[in-house]
Design goal:
The complex is a heterodimer of chains A (251) and B (262).
Chain A lengths: L6 E9 L5 E10 L4 E5 L6 H9 L6 E5 L9 E4 L11 H11 L4 H14 L15 H13 L5 E5 L7 H17 L3 E6 L2 H7 L2 E5 L6 E6 L14 H19 L1
Parallel strand pairs in A: 3-7, 3-8, 5-6, 6-7
Antiparallel strand pairs in A: 1-2, 1-4, 8-9
Chain B lengths: L1 H29 L9 H10 L1 H35 L1 H16 L2 H11 L3 H25 L4 H9 L4 H39 L8 H10 L3 H30 L12
Helix pairs in contact in B: 2-10, 3-4, 3-6, 3-8, 3-9, 5-6, 5-8, 6-8, 8-9, 8-10, 9-10
Classes of the chains: A alpha/beta (251), B mainly alpha (262).
């Protein structure tokens, strides 16, 4: 990568108070407007890496650098569960990040409506989370992450709990949004197929303590659609990523 | 479905009516004198004939109950919020809340009645001690039960402690708090009655417990029963009102208030 990355993890080491060494010597650079997947087995520290980028935890050694600087609100985070407040309507949930930053009510309402339209939940602003299906809850969660118009969207296995049909639909919608807007996405997943389908680059992690074992470029152009899922380049990238994953787990 | 619900509603009333009828029959057939066991009909008649004595007493007891419950809500929630601010505060003070809770109120109330000059206030303190703990303990649990991911989300967006409390912890603690409130409602009535008993013939009270003591000394057993009926009725009413409050507050979102269809 020639241009300065948006965010760079350099020699990051993270141990928890329990003594577990989650990450050791993790290096990863994320370029602006890039779609990068972090692929690895359960418990390899993928989520920890994401939380480090989000600034929710601090590394014990190494650094998380923002060569171009960054401000609060540059980040959107989507968790594995929808993580909505059950007592608040969908609109109130989506508006939360703006409310926490004291954005004026009218402006916040407008932007929440905009974010809900983006994820196809325009008609559900007044619904409560319990009234939504799993996929719709996840859409609401994504709308909440988008409402601050982040530069970097961090997604922690967001579709892992969804059925395949819903997951494919959300994969496509996410790609469409990513192409239309100009964010950067870091997408954590344990699915080889999902990582290859979505991203330009797959960073394969080793088992704990996690570090990046290999990075695989997925050269296929966008837009990608259902046909891509059966194409030769897709298969080739999947094979390559699977082999890298096997190797990383054995190492 | 409706027939089923009707039966559900009627069944407990039928059991009550049968028990009362049996009681009435036993008293009448055996000619049991009213100072041993009054028939339900006599208790009902006494409720009406002694209303000028009993209902003002009910009001006194209810007043203490409601004030104690209000104080328990204020004290319990405030302490819980304080505990939620730091583990350290919680660890330091929680044991004393437990001490207050596990010491029988009948054992403390004589002391309180001695030290607190205003008898009304003394009764209130006794009832408060009994009622505040379930609110404190439930609300503390609720405030600490916020979804960890939501807590992270609030941090990510730079929420202040106050914002996290108002928008996340307090709403999340609501079901726990309301569960505690329902228990505290009954306990504040019990606390009020027990404290009145302890104050007893010191002559301060004119609440229902005092009427029960007084009737006992005068062998006016029907009035004793009538006062007992009023206390039970008050307890049931408090429970129903608080259940309604809980339902209204949670019906839009909490699992406990939702009926599953199909």
């Amino acid at each position: 990568m020639t241009a300065a990355p948006l965010v760079r993890l350099a020699g990051v080491r993270k141990a928890f108070a329990s003594g577990t060494l989650a990450l050791d010597g993790l290096d990863l650079a994320i370029g602006e407007h890039e779609f990068v997947s972090i692929l690895g087995p359960s418990g390899c520290g993928k989520s920890t890496a994401l939380r480090l980028i989000a600034g929710l935890i601090e590394p014990n050694a190494g650094a998380v650098e923002w060569p171009k600087g960054h401000a609060a609100g540059d980040l959107g985070f989507v968790f594995q569960e929808p993580t909505l407040m059950p007592w608040a309507s969908v609109a109130d949930n989506v508006r939360l990040p703006l409310r926490l930053r004291s954005v004026a009510r009218q402006e916040a309402d407008r932007r929440a409506a905009e974010a809900l339209d983006m994820v196809g939940l325009g008609g559900f602003a007044r619904a409560y989370p319990r009234e939504l299906s799993g996929g719709m809850k996840m859409r609401a969660s994504i709308a909440r992450a988008l409402v601050t118009r982040p530069r970097l969207l961090l997604m922690d296995e967001p579709f892992a709990a969804l059925d395949e049909i819903t997951r494919f639909k959300l994969n496509n919608d996410l790609l469409e949004l990513w192409r239309a807007q100009s964010w950067t996405v870091v997408f954590v997943t344990h699915s080889v197929f999902e990582s290859v389908y979505l991203s330009q680059r797959v960073a394969v992690m080793t088992a704990r303590p996690g570090r990046i074992a290999r990075e695989i470029a997925v050269a296929a152009p966008y837009p990608r659609d259902a046909l891509f899922r059966t194409s030769e380049p897709y298969n080739r990238s999947c094979r390559e990523a699977s082999a890298a994953l096997q190797e990383a787990m054995a190492a | 479905m409706t027939a089923q619900r009707l039966a559900n509603l009627i069944a407990p009333f039928a059991v009550g009516a049968l028990a009362l009828a049996a009681w009435e029959a036993v008293v009448r057939l055996n000619g049991i004198p009213p100072y041993i066991l009054p028939a339900p009909s006599l208790v009902a008649a006494t409720l009406v004939s002694d209303r000028a004595v009993l209902f003002p007493s009910l009001l006194v007891t209810l007043q203490i109950t409601v004030m104690a419950l209000a104080a328990a809500v204020a004290g319990g929630v405030l302490l819980a919020v304080l505990f939620a601010q730091s583990r350290w505060i919680e660890r330091s003070f929680y044991p004393y809340a437990v001490v207050l809770q596990v010491t029988p109120i009948v054992a403390i109330s004589p002391l309180i009645l001695i030290y607190v000059e205003n008898p009304h206030l003394a009764l209130l303190i006794c009832a408060w001690i009994v009622a505040f703990f379930p609110i404190l303990s439930n609300t503390t649990l609720g405030l600490g039960s916020a979804d960890h991911n939501l807590v992270d989300l609030f941090r990510l967006y730079g929420a202040t402690r106050w914002q996290a409390l108002c928008y996340l912890r307090l709403p999340g603690a609501m079901p726990y708090f309301l569960g505690g409130l329902r228990i505290a409602g009954g306990l504040s009535l019990i606390g009020a009655v027990v404290a009145e008993f302890a104050a007893g013939t010191a002559g301060t009270g004119s609440g229902l417990a005092y009427r029960i003591l007084e009737s006992g000394y005068r062998l006016n057993i029907p009035r004793m029963f009538a006062a007992l009926v009023l206390i039970s009725a008050a307890g049931i009413a408090i429970y129903l009102v608080l259940s309604l409050v809980q339902h209204l507050a949670l019906r839009r979102w909490h699992e406990s208030a939702l009926r599953r269809e199909g």
